[in-house]
Design goal:
The complex is a heterodimer of chains A (about 375) and B (about 425).
Chain A lengths: L2 E6 L21 E2 L3 E2 H11 L4 E5 L5 H6 L14 E5 L14 H7 L1 H5 L5 E6 L2 E3 L3 H10 L4 E7 L11 E4 L5 E5 L9 E10 H13 L5 H9 L5 E6 L3 E3 L3 H10 L3 H9 L14 E3 L4 E3 L1 E3 L4 E2 L2 E3 L2 E2 L4 E2 L4 E3 L2 E2 L4 E2 L4 E3 L1 E3 L4 E2 L4 E3 L5 E3 L9
Parallel strand pairs in A: 1-4, 1-6, 4-5, 8-12, 14-17, 15-18, 16-19, 17-20, 18-21, 19-22, 20-23, 21-24, 22-25, 23-26, 24-27, 25-28
Antiparallel strand pairs in A: 2-3, 6-11, 7-13, 8-11, 9-10
Helix pairs in contact in A: 3-6
Chain B lengths: L5 E6 L20 E2 L3 E2 L2 H9 L4 E5 L5 H7 L13 E5 L14 H6 L2 H6 L4 E6 L2 E3 L3 H10 L4 E7 L9 E5 L5 E6 L8 E10 H10 L8 H11 L4 E5 L4 E3 L3 H10 L26 E3 L4 E3 L1 E3 L4 E2 L2 E3 L2 E2 L4 E2 L4 E3 L2 E2 L4 E2 L4 E3 L1 E3 L4 E2 L4 E2 L19 E3 L4 E2 L4 E2 L4 E3 L11 E2 L4 E3 L5
Classes of the chains: A alpha/beta (about 375), B alpha/beta (about 425).
Chain lengths: ~375, ~425
Amino acid sequence: MRAIGIVLAGGASGHRMKELGSRRAVAAMPVAGSYRSIDFVLSNMSNSHIQKVGVFTQYNAGSLGEHLSSSKWWDFGRKQGGLYVFTPTVTAENNFWYRATADAIYQNLAFLRNSHEPYVVIASGDCVYKMDFNKVLEYHIDKKADITVVCRDSDDLLEKDRYGTVKMNEDHRIEEFEEKPVVAKSSTISCGIYVVRRRALIEMIEKCAEEDRYDFVRDVLIRFKDIKRIYGYKIKDYWRNIASVEDYFHTNMDFLKPEVRNFFFKQYPDIYSKVDDLPPAKYNVGATVKNSLVASGTIVNGTVEDSVIFRETYIGNNCTIKNSIILNDVYIGDNTYIENCIVESHGTIRANSTFKGEDEIKIVVEKNERFII
Amino acid sequence: MIKKEMIAMLLAGGQGSRLGVLTSKMAKPAVSFGGKYRIIDFPLSNCINSGIDTVGVLTQYQPLRLNTHIGIGIPWDLDRNIGGVTVLPPYEKMANSEWYTGTANAIYQNIDYMETFNPEYVLILSGDHIYKMDYEVMLDYHKANNAEVTIAVMPVPMEEAKRFGIMITDDKGQITEFEEKPEHPRSNLASMGIYIFNWKTLKEALIAMAEQPALDFGKHIIPYCHKNGAPLYAYEFTGYWKDVGTLESYWQANMELIDIVPEFNLYEEYWKIYTKADALPPQYFSNDSVVERSIIGEGSEIYGQVYNSIIGCGVTIGKDAVVRDSIIMNGTEIKAGASLNKVIAAENVEIGENTTIGVGDEAPNETDPKIYNAGLVTIGEKTVIPGNVTIGKNTVISGITEAQDYPNSILDSGRTLVKAGDE
């Protein structure tokens, strides 16, 4: 209980998530068949014995709110600590939305003030990874850092220009920090995970607010980097940000690799999620499933290849699903062909349809009437 | 004062000895069912779905698995400030300490528990049946008849009636007579072991009959109530209800789940069956996998072939392994090239490469032919079976077995191979 957690889950994805982004905050995106994106950071915090966590939401938080309806799935429902959801509210002093990340923290500064834990771990809700924050905390203390930023090589990441880049000296102190540069000077990127002393954070955030500055990266990290000791903690493990269609698709597909499944599903500690109480998946005559993941509550009658099928999906007779992601509660009528697609959740696809992504992943949003016998 | 209209008492202390090695380490209500469930999930889910939020679970035989499964009742929403689920094991008293000696004796020893909730009615359930039932409807029936005791009954084929407690009723459903396993049954209404009592009536009967050895509901309490003129009614239930008391009926009930639209449908939106989820991740199928007419639980990895089978959570089926007409429970690993036919493999079993199980002619089991029959192979939990052996039908294997336990790499049909393991 040395740290409290802050999860930044309020951001819209802008155009990068295309139609998927209009439905929900990125942190609520379903991932890997049975999870939502925010499960990873919440599980990491819980598994690192961070017991008090604030989740800051703003953009389209319906799905997220539903998912966070109980804190017990991540073991947060405790007397000491708990899971707090902070949405923007109008107060006597303030009637703005969260103008950016630092402003979100500023508007809820009481959460920091009223805690007694000496450290704060700040992370975003749109990344898929497994991490022991205690190790970052140890490193932070060891380096006598003011702020520690978790970093990673961008070699195996797609769309490298989506990230902030850092340049460290031999001691791993960060000397340069650029937010989403057009031409990156370094192949080390920031994972958006920060450790900072609680009192120092309060101080910096207050200073920002006085100067009408609102962004944590631009107005705290970059502005303070020469006067504060900011260190990089480099990780090598699997880490992906899912906030673009391309990255979202490939992150899900990564779970078809045994080493990724082993890392997340087999190695202790586990990733937790809200339990849905669905029956096990069922395969009727005519079902063929190759190199795919299938979540519970699904009924398969057709062919599924190289795909990730989320919960409660029905795949009709003689269907073929190839290299696609089918999100929760989709009904796919008989004789349908789907290739290179992401099918949005709660959709109903009529029988005999064909959907195929040609040069890029196609997003299928089909809202037909569903007839259930 | 706390006041609950109806509370439930769930009898979960029985061994279920006819399930053989499946219950050697756990009580029957804790045995897996349908891929991800345990038998007790069905009555517990029925309770919460019927609006009963206070359930006492009476445990005695091998309670560890049951205790860890139930916990504080979170999966069934039975973690409540007042009521919720309470596990009630036998306990020591100032004098006359005893185990639970019969179904009603177990309830008698927990009069204080029931008294706490000041109930109007008490529902008695057993933890070894598969069914969905709205106890609230049964309670309405109980109230409408001004009954003091209502017994849920189910019409069974006349020729099977002699295996059950049989109720003889008048045309209004009032029970006039009853017979325990009669040679020549006069009715086909079999008691399902589900009772609603007026708390006053039950308490009075339990105290009056307290000295009776092995105090039992069917044998003592119901006859006592009847003798004293309490109105007894039979509540006829016509939905799906399965007693999974024998290995064959257990296997059969599991297999029925894989029909296209099974008689017992787990995929209904309302009346969900809740369970403590052991695993969350989706299941993986490799490029070489084949799966047909099967139910598969979370986190399982299939590299081989699965036909007509119920596979639990976290199961691995290796490359070229073939699993047919079998029940494979949580955490079991079947290595490459193994072949299983009509096998019930309990949790965390390990089956070696290229081992073939369930082949050859049938022969009666040498130790317990009444338990191990129907051509099934039963494998106890945490059993290890080495690679490259062949195992016949009506066999039972339990414990860490090694190649030298299989002369010429064969275990003939009807053999029993039970090793004590590392205890």
